[in-house]
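Look at one such:
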Amino acid sequence: MSQAAERYALALFEIAGKHDASVEVEQDLREVQKAFEQNPELLELLSSPKLEANEKKNIISNLFGQGNVYVLNTLQILSERKRLDEVSGIVDEYVRLDNAAKGIEDAIVYSVSPLTEEERANISSVFAKKIGKQSLRIENVIDPSLIGGLRLQIGNRIFDSSISSKLERLQRQLIG
């Protein structure tokens, strides 16, 4: 991630915090990031030297004008400064700053079937304490190869209580 992305994210984070809009800004940033990831030609179009600056502003306003004004303004500034390629890094850094301020950590939970809200809450409270956070924002990924149990990834840490991993350990013990 570039220093520019970090600076833009910090500025946006501070503005959103002052105006009590951090949740809305984060949601809109995730949508913007998704739009750029799913439509790479959009970034190509907005980066084209053939388009004039006011045409780029109009496209950005038409696409993202319904969102948060701070996100829209940031996109306009990035367009003017030819930095729209920094959007993904800005979103990642903004989410990191917001999570740190709220004591939240993102986690991916792999399970055989979808987690219930109660299961999500239990996993969040148990593992958040283990890593010194207030709570976890859980993304649930269905993985039938686990056979049963869970695999939890928080940052670069993995907690694995899946049946498939227990079977693999047992197999290694029996063979070794």
About this structure: The radius of gyration is 20 Å.
